[in-house]
Structures are given as structure tokens and as C-alpha cells.
Design goal:
The complex is a heterodimer of chains A (334) and B (150). Chain A is of the alpha+beta class and 334 residues long. Chain A folds into four domains: 98 residues, Ubiquitin-like (UB roll), CATH 3.10.20.740; 91 residues, Alpha-Beta Plaits (2-Layer Sandwich); 75 residues, no CATH class; 27 residues, no CATH class. Chain A is built from seven helices and 14 strands. In chain A, the strands form four sheets. In chain A, strands 2-1-5-3-4 form a five-stranded mixed sheet, with helices on both faces. Chain A starts with a strand and ends with a helix. In chain B, strands 2-3-5 form a three-stranded antiparallel sheet. Chain B has a domain of 96 residues: Alpha-Beta Plaits (2-Layer Sandwich), CATH 3.30.70.3270. The longest helix of chain B has 15 residues. Chain B is 22% helix and 15% strand. The chains are: A alpha+beta (334), B alpha+beta (150). The interface between A and B is medium-sized, with 15 and 16 residues. Chain A: InterPro entries: 2Fe-2S_ferredoxin-like_sf, 2Fe-2S_ferredoxin-type, NADH_UbQ_OxRdtase_ferredoxin, NADH_UbQ_OxRdtase_Gsu_4Fe4S-bd, Prok_molybdopt-oxidoreductase. Chain A: Belongs to the complex I 75 kDa subunit family. Chain A: Its cofactor is [2Fe-2S] cluster; [4Fe-4S] cluster. Chain A: It is found in: Membrane. Chain A: This is Fe-S-binding domain-containing protein.
Chain lengths: 334, 150
């Protein structure tokens, strides 16, 4: 008997290592059936289980015990069993529950997307577009906080926070000296530094990248530009502290922001140090690798003309394809 | 041609009669710009950046109008509101520079539709002709509504 277990998610089967979570099994399949995750972060130990957006329905527990699980489970925290059958987008119950979760996440969110620097790459924004309803039923005042400066480069907007704890795990695991955490409990919980003590670790800037919403933002990028007007470019430099592999965000000739490279699930590939993130904003500091691939569904790719897409009618005609290519070369030569 | 046709007089008189008849008819010409034609409900003219009921600028430089603009006519530079400017700008971010290139604009009204803050409306007059290209780039001085009279 092989040591791999078989799990079926939305009718697609895959063999995975025992101990894999349902979410990670789904990510190995990829595509639309991957549950969204706001708090789970594969590179941070102990993350997950807080936001409940990754809820799925387990319609068959395992081969030995085929009873379904009585309630929806958080897929980031539930490990797969042999013969498990999971329903994600095929289950109306899950879709409905996710809508409720989004509504709860948005209860105290100020919805100030027009102001927020995260707009355009915000996971909560994507999630509420996909799963949420248009209007809110909440009639009370949303909780408000003053803006807090965590060091001179990071700004915390507690109003936007969804308490995913990712930044706390980052501070705990990536940086060697944690100075910020959660104060208060339940409804009153908030991210804060101890007496607003500055985070002066070399890797503290990564809390900006792991934040799924606009709660932790780069102060050097504050209100500089909207994400979709900037052009992301992959670049690297020889950095003694980190891998030095970053994404530069250009506006015209200027680098206005440096971030780590994020994968399809919005997780950084490699954490970068504050030196790279905040201090090197000149093209001459970097070795450019090429434009960053952005999903055509993302708003960041709007008005960025990467190639001339021929209309679908001519796509199969080799002569037209050739002439399209020629035209593209002519146009891009300048 | 017959004799009457050859002397042209009846035709000339007929033509003149039509001309004279129009002297007593209602005049169709509208003397623009002194006089203006009534516009339809969905008229789209020059943009104006609106103020709210307290006279603060509504625009928060979110960039959605520029994103929606098919002609890429809109550019803006955002700035952060400072202490003491709460009476000028409604949100904590505002457009320090807001420019529309009127030669590029096609008056489609998508900026109006995209605006989440109800800040831009195409409710102005026809954009006037000018001589220089640079004069068609309308900045905030031409676009923002006049401040409220207190």
C-alpha cells in the first residue's frame, strides 16, 4: 500500500502526502476549486483557522468512516483522510456560508478602498467581489482607531484589519525579536506594538506583504500612486541579508515601491529585508529581469498592453497570425 | 424649352416667393454662444469636479476615472490632507493635480459612472475652441466647482 492518500475535491482526485491540509491538496490541483484564504499563509507556521473563508463541506469523511462531517470545516486546518470527498464550489451550502463569512469580515471594515493603498491587490476586495453581497445590513457605527506608526516606514490602520494574525506570526517567525502583537480580546482585539515601540528589525517590512488587507501599508508608498497605474518589474540585487529577489513597481522612470514577489495565492515567494524594500529605490540599484506576469483578470494589468491579442476569429489562420506577429514587432520596435 | 421657360422669369419669381415666405416664418437659427439650445437629460459636456454640501472637494484621487477612461485622458497626483485642511477636502486623501486632456476626451461619461464618490459629472457646456494644444489640458482651476458662498 502506498503511503499517499487519495482525496477528491469537487470531483477531481489527487494523491497527496498524509497530513496535508485540504487547502493544500486543493492548491496542488489548482484552478477554481481552491478555497480562498485570508489568514492561512503556507510560509508561516501556525497560521490559519481564524478567518473561516476557506470553509468546505466534507461529504465523505474517509474510506473507513464514510459519514460526512456534520459541519463545514476550515480546509486550512483539516487534514485529508484516505478516500475523503470534499465539496467546495459545487456545494451551495459552502457558497452561502462563505457569503456570510465575507459579510462578517466586512462588518468593521471601513470600505475606504478609494483611499486605501492596497486597493487593486487587496484580498478582501477580491473576496467580497466574488462572494459578498453589494449592500451591508450593519446599522451600527464601525469601530474606529487612530492611525499608528509602527516605526517610520510602516503604518497601521487598525480600522481595516481583519485580525488574521499573519503579521504577528511573521514578526514571531521571520524577525528574531517580536515587538508587536494583539492587545485585547474578542471584539476589542487590535494589533499593536507594546507602547507603540518601533519595529526596527531587518525583516519587519514583510508584515506589509503578508497583510491581506490595507491595514499594514508602506509609508514610503503612501498615496504615491494607485497600484494599477504602476508597472511591476522583476529585479534582483546582491543583498547580504536576504535573497534580494523583488518586484519593483515603476511609475514612469521612477521606482515608487519595492515588494517581495507574490505567487498566485498572494503569498510571497521569498521574504525580503528592509534594506531592499525601503532604501533602494533607484533603477541603478537593481538588475532588471523583465516585466512581471500579472493575471489578465487583475486590475493591475488594465491598460498595460503586453501584446496585441488578435481577435479570436483570426487566431487559427496562420497567414494572419504571421502578419499579426510582424505588426507587433513593428509596433514594439519603437 | 418653351418661351416662358426660356426667359427664366417665372422660375425666378417662384424662387423669390419662397425666400420671402420665410421672412414671416419662425427663425430656426440659434445665435450661439449668446443663445443656447436646450440640452437633453443625458447631455455630456465639460467635466466638473463637485463639492459636497459643506463645500469640500469630493474627489479623493482614487484613480477609477482614469482607469475607466478609454481615451486615457485623465491624470492625477494624490496628496495627503494635512491638519487644518478638513474644510477643503472631504477625505484624508485628495487630488493635488487633476488634469483632463480635452483633446483626448471623447465625452463617453465612463468617468462619471466609475466615480465612487460622486465627484465628477459631465454637466458643463461644450468645450470651447482654442489655438494651442496645451490650453486643452484642463486642470483643477477649470474643473473644480466654484466654492460655496457662505
Amino acid at each position: 500500500m502506498s503511503d499517499k492518500v487519495k482525496v477528491t475535491i469537487d470531483g477531481i482526485s489527487i494523491d497527496v502526502e498524509p497530513g496535508t491540509s485540504i487547502l493544500n491538496a486543493a492548491r496542488q490541483i489548482g484552478g477554481d476549486i481552491v478555497p480562498p484564504a485570508m489568514c492561512y499563509y503556507s510560509k508561516l507556521q501556525g497560521s490559519g483557522g481564524k478567518c473561516r473563508t476557506c470553509l468546505v463541506k466534507v461529504s465523505k469523511g474517509s474510506e473507513k468512516d464514510p459519514r460526512p462531517m456534520p459541519k463545514l470545516v476550515a480546509s486550512c486546518r483539516t487534514t485529508v483522510m484516505d478516500g475523503m470527498e470534499v465539496q467546495n464550489i459545487t456545494s451551495p451550502e459552502v457558497v452561502e456560508a462563505r457569503k456570510g463569512v465575507v459579510e462578517l469580515l466586512l462588518i468593521n471594515h471601513p470600505l475606504d478602498c478609494p483611499i486605501c493603498d492596497q486597493a487593486g491587490e487587496c484580498h478582501l476586495q477580491d473576496l467580497s467581489y466574488e462572494h459578498g453581497s453589494e449592500a451591508t445590513r450593519y446599522e451600527f457605527d464601525r469601530r474606529t482607531f487612530d492611525k499608528i506608526d509602527i516605526g517610520d516606514k510602516i503604518q497601521l490602520h487598525m480600522t481595516r484589519c481583519i485580525l488574521c494574525y499573519r503579521c504577528v506570526f511573521t514578526a514571531d517567525q521571520i524577525t528574531d525579536n517580536r515587538v508587536h502583537g494583539i492587545l485585547g480580546r474578542g471584539d476589542a482585539a487590535e494589533i499593536s506594538t507594546y507602547i507603540e515601540k518601533a519595529v526596527d528589525n531587518d525583516f519587519s517590512g514583510n508584515v506589509i506583504d503578508v497583510c491581506p488587507v490595507g491595514a499594514l501599508t508602506d509609508k514610503t508608498f503612501r498615496f504615491k500612486n494607485r497600484v494599477w497605474f504602476t508597472k511591476p518589474v522583476d529585479a534582483h540585487r546582491d543583498c547580504p541579508k536576504c535573497s534580494g529577489k523583488v518586484a519593483l513597481w515603476y511609475k514612469g522612470e521612477d521606482v515608487i515601491r519595492v515588494t517581495a514577489r507574490k505567487d498566485v495565492y498572494g503569498e510571497v515567494e521569498e521574504f525580503i529585508c528592509n534594506d531592499c524594500r525601503f532604501e533602494h529605490k533607484k533603477t541603478s540599484d537593481w538588475v532588471i529581469e523583465g516585466p512581471r506576469k500579472i493575471s489578465p483578470h487583475s486590475v493591475i494589468s488594465a491598460n498595460h498592453y503586453e501584446r496585441l491579442t488578435p481577435p479570436s476569429v483570426v487566431r487559427k489562420n496562420p497567414a494572419l497570425l504571421e502578419s499579426n506577429k510582424e505588426q507587433f514587432e513593428r509596433v514594439t520596435k519603437l | 424649352m418653351s418661351f416662358s421657360e426660356r426667359i427664366y422669369l417665372p422660375s425666378i419669381l417662384k424662387g423669390l416667393a419662397i425666400t420671402f415666405k420665410h421672412i414671416f416664418k419662425k427663425r430656426e437659427t440659434i445665435f450661439y454662444p449668446e443663445q443656447e439650445r436646450p440640452v437633453s437629460e443625458n447631455w455630456r459636456g465639460l467635466h466638473s469636479l463637485k463639492r459636497d454640501e459643506k463645500g469640500r472637494e469630493r474627489c479623493t484621487a482614487c484613480g477609477l476615472c482614469a482607469l475607466a477612461c478609454p481615451a486615457e485622458a485623465i491624470t492625477m497626483v494624490a496628496a495627503e490632507r494635512k491638519k487644518g485642511e478638513e474644510g477643503l477636502y472631504r477625505e484624508e486623501k485628495y487630488a493635488a493635480v487633476y488634469e483632463i486632456n480635452m483633446l483626448r476626451c471623447i465625452f463617453c461619461g465612463l468617468c462619471e459612472e466609475a466615480c465612487p464618490k460622486e465627484a465628477i459629472y459631465l454637466d458643463g457646456p461644450i468645450v470651447e475652441a482654442d489655438y494651442l494644444r496645451k490650453d486643452f489640458i484642463f486642470g483643477k482651476d477649470k474643473l473644480v466647482e466654484a466654492p460655496l458662498k457662505s
